Structures are given as C-alpha cells and as structure tokens.
Amino acid sequence: MISYRGNCLFIFFVLQFCLLNIQTSFCQNDEKNIKILGPVELKFEPTYTIENFINAPRILTKTNTNSPITEQTGPESVFEMIFSFGIETAIPRIGLTFETMWKPFAKTDENLFTGATAGSLGSEVKDNFPEIEAEINFSLFTFEQTRGLLDAHFDVVDKFSPAKRPYDQSSYTHKLNLELDVAIGVFHWIKNENWLRDVEMEVSFDYVASGLPKNGDVFPEMGIEYLDDASPWSISFLVVFPIAPLHIKKNK
Asked: What ranges do the domains of the chain cover?
C-alpha cells in the first residue's frame, strides 16, 4: 500500500510535470505565441523555523486531579524539508510558487490516522504530516538589480495544513499566510561558471492571518484552553539549493 507521504510526493511530481508541459506550450520561442508563463524552477530548501516567539499565548491546562494551571508558552523550533517550484509570469515582478513540506523530526503522542498511541507502540509517533502552499510572489528587488547580492519578495500564501482550531471539521484547513522573504546570494562572487552561484541563504518572516487558535478556544481531548490568541508570527532560516534547471551564470 502506498503511504500518505508517498501519495503527496506523487501528487507533487505530477503537478510539476503538468506545469512543465504548460511551460512548453506557452513559452515557445515563437513570436506567434504569447508568453503567459515563464520558466519553471525546482528547488530544495532545508529550513529551520522558530515559531511562537512574538505574542506567545497563555494556555490553561485542566486535569481531573489538580486545579487548572496557567502556562505561559514560549518559542518553539522545528526543522522542515521543503521542495518548491516557481514560475515566472508575463506580469512584471509577479510570480507563482508551489511548495510541499514536512517536518521529519517532529513527534506526537498519537497517530492521527490509526489512533495508535505512543504508549501502545512503545515509542513516539513521527508528526511528519505534509503541508502544501500556493503563493503569489511580488518582487521588491532582484539579484540582477543588486549585482547578485540580495533578492526580496512579498508573498500572499494559501497554506493547506493540519487543522488548528477545535471546531474545524476537516483534518486539513486553508490558512492565509503573508511572507516577507529576503535572500542573500552567498556565492555571487564566484567568477567561474558554477551552479553554486544560484545557492542562496534566505530569511523568511511569516504572519499566519487565519486558521489559528483564538482566545477562548477549548480542546477537551487535550485538556487545554487558550487564554490568548495563538501567535501568528514565525521566522525561518533556510538554504536554497537549485535542482532544475541548473543555471550556469556567466560574469559580465
């Protein structure tokens, strides 16, 4: 039987194949064709994210044996694996990006799909549910404008990820996410033709505008109540490795 993760990876590569065909159809070097979509770029992005570090909420923990305990939550860090493919459009400074990601080292006490608990299995369950994002990218400035040093863009994101609110009726929900990404061309100084010239270091500031727990949300199964809105802020540090196509840039 194909795993859930395997299904998501299969869907990801099917979408990539379809978009590559769209690129072939619309981006021919034929003057009769209108260039609606530009080249497709596939990238791999190992990412370290710090969540809940601004306006961290207080949580009320309720148990059957003790009085409720108020806890001030703090920053949480997570490592993510991201595959993304971006598409240029005919509209200046606007592009599209599609991403799939998962957290290979995150743990949980219960398997959402089978109901098996960490106690029955004898070990913690990997909380490696995949997430999908579809983005519209608005370029602020580019590597070409900064001599290969900096690139920045603002993104409006449809984030499709595990449900966060207690009354969500779907396992996955759509969330509005706003991002500001700033990339550094760490190898822009390389003079010879080398694929390393496309490797980037990036910082991403994220604000999740919808779909997160709010003040008063109660999770009976977990025995907790949110006393404040969940923090929508996170910051990510990532390395961007180009996979396809590999551009060999020449110094001018």
From this structure: 4-244
Task: For residues 183 and 203, give the distance between their C-alpha atoms in angstroms, rounded to a whole number.
Answer: 6
Question: How many CB atoms neighbour CB 109 within 10 A?
Answer: 11
Q: Which of 213, 221, 132, 119 is nearest to 172 (CA)?
A: 132
User: pLDDT, tens digit, for every residue of 109-167?
Assistant: 887 778 788 888 888 888 888 999 999 999 999 998 998 899 999 999 999 999 999 99
Which among 86, 52, 78 has a CA at the least distance from the CA of 237?
Answer: 78
Q: Are strands 107-108 and 94-102 parallel, antiparallel or unpaired?
A: unpaired
Fold of the domain spanning 4-244: Porin (2.40.160)
With contact defined as beta carbons under 8 Å apart, do 199 and 186 qualify?
Answer: yes
This prediction's pTM = 0.81
